[in-house]
Amino acid sequence: MNSEKEHEETKINLEQKQHEHEEQNVKERKKSPKKKRTTRRKSSRAPTKKELQLQLETTENKLEKMEAHIAASKERLEELEDEKLRLYAEMDNARKRAQRRIEEERRRAVVESITPVLDVADNLERAIQSAAENQSGEAILSGVKMVNKQLIDALTVIGIEVIETEGATFDYNMHEAVGKISAPGKAPNEIVVEVSRGYLLEGRLLRPSKVIVATGDSE
Fold it and tell me: Residue 166: which domain range?
């Protein structure tokens, strides 16, 4: 009996001590402050002078490269513009040269085809002069004059015109002097006689007029 009672008391004492121990632990946890969690922040330091200088040099190098690239692009654009203008000028010159060649070929063809006709005109002119001097064959004279007029009109249509010499002063650009005579009342180098007619083709000399000019009264 006594042993059971002692055992029971021992058990109660142990439970009581354990309970007291737990209460003590609870009290100690309440008394001790909670540790706050702290996060380390990365330290932000200012760049050094050397680093700033390096960044500045890098930026300046980039700007220089960009400026050089822009300058090269502008220069290339100017070269292309000059090349375009040069090509336009060459094309225009080529077109003008081709046009001049065409005009020269056309003029040469007209000259070659019309030269024999001019000889006919000369013969008609001589026939008219001869008939007028002999005062015969009025009908023939009239017919020849009509043919001569038709010939002159035909020449005019294709751009050939007669160089007028009557009362004109000798012009080496239009006339060819084949002789000089004393002609009272005529000024020096004034055309006295037209030996053969001269012609212009579209304003340019085709054949000069062969003429005899006055020497002047003093000679």
Answer: 160-219
Q: Which residue has the tokens 């077109």?
A: 95
* 48-68 per-position pLDDT tens digit: 888 888 888 888 888 988 988
Per-residue pLDDT of 171-191, as tens digits, reads: 999 999 999 998 888 888 999
CATH number of residue 196's parent domain = 2.30.22.10
Map residue 189 onto helix, strand or coil. coil
Buried b or exposed e, range 4-33, using 16+ CB within 10 angstroms: eeeeeeeeeeeeeeeeeeeeeeeeeeeeee
- The secondary structure of the chain in percent helix, strand, coil, rounded to multiples of 5, reads 60, 15, 25
Q: Give CA–CA dist 101/137, Å, rounded.
A: 49
- SS3 state of residue 46: coil
CB atoms within 10 A of CB 94: 10
